[in-house]
Design goal:
Blueprint (H helix, E strand, L loop, with lengths): L2 E7 L2 H7 L3 E7 L4 H11 L13 E2 L2 E2 L1 E5 L3 E6 L5 H8 L6 E8 L3 E2 L2 E10 L1 H18 L6 E6 L1 E4 L3 E9 L2 H18 L2 E7 L4 E4 L5 H4 L3
Parallel strand pairs: 6-10
Antiparallel strand pairs: 1-2, 3-4, 5-6, 7-12, 8-9, 9-11, 9-13, 10-12, 13-14
């Protein structure tokens, strides 16, 4: 297995547990962002107590951000979204309805063949705004039990999921209404930009006319 040495900077409690602020670790060349944290913890076993709260960044960018409490879960990541993962997160014997929305990269935009979408976002702000939207959902529909929002950034090829929303409630009406509210709020409020990349190598930034700042211009 081919490996490479990478410098890892440690902050806060992590640096205290390990006893230093900087250390060199060997990583497999083929490792993915998904396995980075596991590799670091495997080599720095003193970080095991922080496994659930440790965040990894590469070149000043988070590999992902996620948060959860007993009611909601948010994850903004470059990793693919799987249908089964969404339902695993929301499974609860106390609920009577689960409503979902999945946004998927489609192959055609009018007559042009799409190869992929590329999402860029102001990551920290996206997370904070998403949390506001979710908390507002609970105020609008107090019966909601769980809310799951997963959003990709980076390259999302044709056929892959870019955003997934799942809402559970005792009865279907509130969860259906909340899903509609959530996707419309995501489209209009989050600092996320989308570039459509075509099969011929050209691209186009897609202007989202639902954005609230564009609505103010009208």
């Amino acid at each position: 297995m081919t490996v490479c040495n990478k410098k890892v900077l440690l902050f806060g409690e992590a640096s205290e547990l390990v006893g230093c602020k900087e250390i060199t670790i060997q990583f497999p060349v083929s490792c993915t962002n998904k396995t980075l944290k596991d590799i670091i913890i495997e080599q720095l076993v003193k970080l095991e107590p922080l496994k659930d709260s440790l965040t990894v960044a590469i070149d000043w960018e988070y590999t992902d951000i996620n948060t959860s409490n007993s009611q909601y879960f948010i994850k903004i990541s470059i990793e693919p979204i799987e249908y089964s993962n969404v339902f695993d997160l929301i499974n609860d014997s106390s609920i009577g309805a689960v409503s979902t929305f999945f946004g998927i990269t489609r192959k055609y935009d009018q007559e042009r063949i799409v190869q992929a979408l590329k999402y860029e976002c102001y990551l920290k702000m996206t997370y904070l705004e998403m949390e506001k939207i979710i908390k507002n959902s609970y105020q609008l529909w107090p019966s909601l039990v769980h809310i799951i929002v997963l959003h990709r950034y980076g390259i999302v090829p044709v056929g892959e999921i870019s955003v997934a929303i799942a809402v559970s409630s005792p009865h279907r009406k509130d969860s259906l209404d909340a899903v509609k509210y959530l996707i419309e709020s995501i489209k209009s409020q989050l600092p996320i930009w989308k570039k459509e990349i075509y099969e011929d190598g050209t691209f186009k930034w897609k202007r989202n006319n639902e954005c609230f700042w564009l609505q103010k211009e009208k």
